[in-house]
Every structure is written in structure tokens, then in C-alpha cells.
User: Which sequence fits this backbone?
């Protein structure tokens, strides 16, 4: 069907509805009139020859007042007096129909018919008034019919915004939804830009100047220029660097360690694998001497010259020979973690540089892991850690060579 056929069909339906409505008004008025006449005759003992014209005059007066109120509202007036009087007449007729009959069921029927007629007239009068206002341009066009589940329930804010835009600009269903989504995204973007701009200007100048700048600058223009100067390659590289498998695994381990530390469960350091044949107590001195000779013979595994020599001697005397031999075997001659599966061949030889290098690679690495991977003692590692780095209980935070800690007894471990 063409648009003209549809308009002709709508016009035919309007005419049919008008004839049906007039017939309905006549029947409802007749039923209400019969109810009031019989009620007046039974309750007030009024003769029918007097009751019929009296009740008809009352009904006709109500219709006249209602019609006058409708005409005045179409002319732009509020017509409060006529509307209130018509409502009072309708309420009086409904009450009289219900109370004037001894059988309240029959009286309720007559009262319901009077109420139905008045409500239908109110709806029809309101429709005619809106059609006139819409034709004169004083009322926006009819908005599209949005879906209850797909639009109102799932996206109530977007649907309400789309309905407002459709009424203001005369858009269709999908155009109004698209414009509503774009408007909401634009408002969120401008709010974020305004927040950053206000913070920067407030830090440089003052709050009043920041308020003026946010209200003076065109945030849409700022957003367009930001979009024009955006470097998508750098943003893509930034995201790709965080999405590497090694980075994800390291971040997961760091979160696990932070959770354990927060819950009070400090993970134990990974101990080196014991030797199959541990040396006898008589070979302690021989193992310590061979370890010293190996460090002297190979400069790349020598300790940091900045380390305190008395502290190293005390460490050698306090650590059991089995742990020293196992640590030497796990560390290797080149200062690398041979027993572990995370070898880093390019670790600097200096202790300070090695600790800084590993912290840059893994910010949440444990001090014990650093000591294993660079072949140094745990105390040497703690000497070059940042002041705010989480430390193991019992290790001083500000201990240096100039301010040594309390002297330990012989045989006491670190």
C-alpha cells in the first residue's frame, strides 16, 4: 500500500470511530438518564413526568459545561472553572445513581455507566486538543514507538534521551537512538576532558581561573584536535607490551605475593637443592677454602669490592658448609642461576647495578630471588634495595656500613 492509501484508510477509520463514539454517547446518556429517573422516582417519590425533564436538564447541563471547557482549552485557555464544574456534575450523577437505588448492585451499574461516559469524553477531548496543538506547531510530533524489552528495559537512559531527541528534531526510531548514543558518549568525553583541564589549570593558577577556562573553551573543539593528533601506533605498542605472556605471568605472580603478604603469609625463599653426598664435618674448612680459591681464580664471580669484608667473613663463619656448597653448585661459576629455569645471562657484575637491573625487569621480585640470581648474599642485596621496598622481618631497613647493627653472637645466623 502507498502512503496515500494509508492516509485514506486512516481517514476512514477516524470517521468510523466518530460515528461509533456518538452512538456510544447516546446509549450511555440514556442508561444514566434511566438510572437517575428510576432512582428519583423510588427514593424521592417524584412523579415520572417531573423526574424525566429534571434529570435530563441536569445531564444536558453537564454536557454543555464539558463542551464549553473543551472549546476554551482548544483556544489555549486552561478553563479551570468549567472543568471543575463538569467534574462536580459527573461526580454528583454517579453518586446519585449508586445511592438512590435500594439494590446497590443495580445502582452500581448505573453509576459505572455514568463514569464510563465521562471518562471516554475526557479522553476524546484530550486527543482533539493535542491534534490541534500539533497542527499549529505548539506540540512536538508524535515520537516513535520504542520496544519495551529491547529499549526501555535494557537501555532506559538511552531510550529516554532518544525519545526527547525525536520529539525535538522529528527523527525516526533508529536515527533517534543513534543520536542519543552519540550525545551520551560526547557528554562523557567532555566531562573527562573538563576534569583534566580543570585540574591542570588549578594546579598552575587557581580554582576560579580553572572554572572560567572549563566554561569558556569549546570542549568539542578540544576533543576534535585531540583526535587529530592521536598517535595510534604508540598506543598500540603500549598495549601490546602489557599483553605479552611473560608480562602477564609476572604480574600474576606479583599479585599473588602481595596477597600473601597482606594476609600475613610470607612466601618462603626457594632453597637450593641439597647435594647427594653431604660433606662431613671435617671437610667444612676445606669447602670454605675451595670456595674462596674459586672466587679468586675467576674474577667474574668475585664479590663486589664495595661489600664489607668483615661482614663477608662473618657470613662464611655463620653459614653451614652444606648450604655454602649447595649454593655454589646452584649459582655456578659465572654468577648465574643454574638450578633455576629463569637464567639472565646479561646481569651486570656490580651488586648495585645487578640489583637495579633485576628490579627494573621485575619490580615485585623477592630479595631472596635477587640474591640467588646474582650470586650474592641476602644482606648485600638488602644494602642496595630502595628504602620503601618490602623487607623480611628481622632485616634492618636503614642499616649501612657506617651504622652497623648489634653484634651477633657466634653461631647466630642472619
Assistant:
Amino acid at each position: 500500500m502507498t502512503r496515500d492509501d494509508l492516509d485514506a484508510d486512516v481517514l476512514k477509520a477516524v470517521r468510523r470511530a466518530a460515528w461509533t463514539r456518538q452512538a456510544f454517547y447516546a446509549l450511555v446518556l440514556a442508561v444514566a438518564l434511566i438510572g437517575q429517573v428510576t432512582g428519583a422516582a423510588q427514593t424521592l417519590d417524584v412523579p415520572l413526568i417531573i423526574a424525566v425533564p429534571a434529570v435530563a436538564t441536569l445531564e444536558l447541563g453537564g454536557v454543555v459545561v464539558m463542551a464549553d471547557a473543551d472549546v476554551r482549552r482548544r483556544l489555549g485557555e486552561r478553563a479551570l472553572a468549567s472543568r471543575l464544574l463538569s467534574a462536580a456534575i459527573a461526580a454528583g450523577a454517579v453518586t446519585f445513581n449508586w445511592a438512590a437505588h435500594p439494590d446497590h448492585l443495580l445502582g452500581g451499574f448505573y453509576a459505572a455507566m455514568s463514569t464510563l461516559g465521562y471518562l471516554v469524553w475526557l479522553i476524546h477531548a484530550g486527543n482533539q486538543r493535542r491534534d490541534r496543538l500539533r497542527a499549529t506547531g505548539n506540540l512536538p510530533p508524535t515520537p516513535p514507538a520504542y520496544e519495551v524489552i529491547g529499549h526501555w528495559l535494557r537501555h532506559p537512559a538511552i531510550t529516554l534521551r532518544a525519545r526527547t531527541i525525536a520529539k525535538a528534531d522529528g527523527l525516526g526510531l533508529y536515527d533517534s537512538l543513534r543520536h542519543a548514543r552519540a550525545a551520551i558518549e560526547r557528554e562523557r568525553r567532555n566531562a573527562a576532558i573538563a576534569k583534566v583541564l580543570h585540574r591542570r589549570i588549578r594546579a598552575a593558577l587557581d580554582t576560579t581561573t580553572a572554572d572560567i577556562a572549563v566554561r569558556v573553551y569549546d570542549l568539542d573543539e578540544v576533543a576534535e584536535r585531540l583526535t587529530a593528533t592521536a598517535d595510534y601506533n604508540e598506543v598500540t605498542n603500549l598495549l601490546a607490551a602489557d599483553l605479552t605472556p611473560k608480562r602477564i605471568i609476572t604480574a600474576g605472580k606479583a599479585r599473588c605475593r602481595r596477597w600473601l603478604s597482606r594476609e600475613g603469609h610470607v612466601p618462603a625463599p626457594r632453597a637450593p637443592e641439597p647435594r647427594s653426598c653431604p660433606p662431613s664435618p671435617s671437610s667444612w674448612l676445606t669447602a670454605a677454602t675451595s670456595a674462596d680459591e674459586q672466587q679468586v681464580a675467576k674474577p667474574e664471580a668475585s664479590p663486589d669490592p664495595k661489600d664489607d669484608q668483615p661482614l663477608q667473613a662473618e657470613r662464611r663463619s655463620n653459614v653451614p658448609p652444606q648450604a655454602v656448597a649447595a649454593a655454589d653448585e646452584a649459582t655456578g661459576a659465572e654468577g648465574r642461576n643454574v638450578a633455576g629455569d629463569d637464567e639472565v645471562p646479561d646481569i651486570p657484575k656490580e651488586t648495585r647495578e645487578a640489583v637495579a637491573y633485576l628490579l627494573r625487569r621485575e619490580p615485585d621480585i623477592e630479595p631472596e630471588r635477587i640474591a640467588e640470581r646474582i650470586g650474592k648474599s641476602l644482606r648485600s642485596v638488602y644494602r642496595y634495595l630502595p628504602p620503601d621496598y618490602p623487607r623480611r622481618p628481622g632485616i634492618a631497613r636503614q642499616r649501612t656500613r657506617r651504622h652497623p647493627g648489634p653484634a651477633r653472637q657466634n653461631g647466630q645466623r642472619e
